[in-house]
Amino acid sequence: MGVVAERKRFTVDEYHKLGQAGVVGEDDRIELIDGELIQMPPIGSVHAGLVGRLDRAFQAHLAHGLVVWAQNPLSFPPASEHQPDLALLKPRSDDYLNSLPTADDVVLVIEGSDTTLAYDRDVKVPLYASQGIPECWLVDLNTRRVEMYRDPGPDGYRTLLRPDRDATVSPLAIPRAAIDLKELFAGIA
User: CATH: 1.10.8.60, 3.90.1570.10, 1.10.10.10, 1.10.1760.20. Which one for 43-184?
Assistant: First the structure.
C-alpha cells in the first residue's frame, strides 16, 4: 500500500498562528499565496530605492486622503496574504490598526520585479485581478518598463498598458499624480 504525499495548504488564520508560534518570523520574507508559503528573495538596493521613489512620488500627491502602504501585508482570506512593494489604500478611521487591509481597501498595488518577474506576472497579478483590485502595476527593473493592468475580471485583467520609457503615467485613483518614468528609472545602471 503506497502513501500519497499531499501538500498542506494554510489559511490566513493558520499563517498568523505560525507567526505567533515563532515558526514564521516578522522579518522573514514569506508570503502566503493561495494557501502556500512562498519564500521571497531579499530586496536589493535598486529595488528598495525604486520603492522609495514611488513612495515619495505618491506621498506628494495624496491630498485625496489615500494611504501609501509600503511593503506591508494585504489580507485576502481565506488563503492569501501578499506583501506587495507598494499599495494605495482607501483611508480608514482606525488607520488599519485593527485589521489588515483587504481587497476592498486597495485602489492600486505595485510589484517591483527583477528576479521574480515571471512569478509576479503569472501568479501574483492574476491573483490581484481575482480579488478585484482595480489596478496593478508591474515594474520591471531589468528592462526599465512598467506594465499597468486595469479592469479586473474573473480571468485576469482585461486591459494592459505598456507605456514608453519616457512616458508620464498616473494611477486611475489619482489622475493628477504624474509619475515620470524617465525620472523613476534615472541612475539605474
Answer: 3.90.1570.10
